[in-house]
Structures are given as C-alpha cells and as structure tokens.
Task: inverse folding
C-alpha cells in the first residue's frame, strides 16, 4: 500500500496545477519534472549502492540481484533495505540547505516548468519522508540529521517537520504565482 501511495503522491499533488499549467503539454512537462524530482531521492539510494558503499552486504545482494536480471526483485529489495542505507547525500542537512536556496531560485527566477516540477517533487518527497520518520526520532536522526550531534526532542522534530511543510507550501504558492 505504501509503495502505491508513494508512487501516486506526485500525481495526486499535480492535480492542484491541472488548470494552472496550460496548454496540456505544459502540464505534462510539469508532471514529468515532479516525478523526476520525486525520484532524485530514490536515485541517490541507487547510486549509494554502486558508488558509495558497493562493498556493503546489502549492496552486494542488490548488485547480484541485478546481475541475475531480476529487476523487479532488485527494486523490491531496495525498498525493503532502505533502513540500511545511511549518510545519503540527499538526506543530509547540507543538501537540505542547498535545496532550499536552489528551490527558491528556480521557482522565483527561472520560469522553467520542468524545473519547478523538479524542485516541488523533491520537496514533496521530503515532506513525505519527514512525516514518515517523525514518529521515530532515531530513524530521523540516522537518515536525515546524521551531521548534527544534537539529539532532538519530539517537539523539536515535529517543529522541524512543520517548518519543512510550511516551506513546501510557500514553494507551492510561489509556483502558482509565477506560472
């Protein structure tokens, strides 16, 4: 169920922009960007397996699965092993800060439909992930806040999730205004 919702989330979110990006080709370009952005965080996980930690046990299992041309099993195993991947580039405080600045620039200054879709797709994925991890402070710290030595309290975690969602809401409003 989670996988289907995870895949359908960008399509559901894109419905907000159905009449904003006209003609329909422009909406399709936006939707493509939305899915590309949403998949950036997933692509980071794939690159982590092949480039960052190819010697890790879970990486070896996934590489062997791919060598056997069991593509569906590769993706299923990748989804199930997500808790084993730590210190991913897109799930770091530095990337979050860089993303925030880049997202504001792309939405307010470029006028690119696909670029707007990409930064909103990344933001949508961040909102989804932060709320998924918010109930487990250790997992949130391990997967997103690993560069920070401080242990966050539950109230601080929910405040952080709220701040990320408010920022994403601001990006959404700016995307509507800059269409």
Result:
């Amino acid at each position: 169920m989670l996988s289907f919702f995870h895949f359908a989330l960008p399509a559901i979110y894109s419905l907000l922009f159905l009449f904003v990006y006209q003609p329909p080709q422009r909406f399709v370009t936006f939707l493509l960007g939305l899915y590309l952005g949403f998949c950036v965080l997933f692509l980071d996980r794939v690159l982590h397996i092949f480039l960052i930690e190819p010697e890790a046990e879970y990486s070896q299992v996934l590489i062997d699965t791919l060598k056997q041309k069991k593509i569906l099993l590769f993706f299923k195993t990748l989804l199930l092993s997500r808790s084993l991947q730590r210190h991913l580039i897109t799930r770091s405080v530095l990337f979050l800060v860089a993303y925030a600045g880049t997202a504001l620039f792309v939405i307010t200054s470029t006028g690119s439909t696909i670029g707007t879709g990409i930064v909103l797709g990344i933001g949508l994925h961040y909102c989804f992930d932060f709320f998924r991890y918010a109930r487990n402070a250790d997992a949130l710290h391990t997967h997103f806040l690993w560069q920070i030595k401080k242990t966050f309290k539950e109230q601080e975690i929910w405040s952080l999730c709220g701040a990320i969602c408010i920022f994403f809401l601001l990006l959404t409003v700016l995307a509507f205004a800059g269409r």
The mean pLDDT is 86.
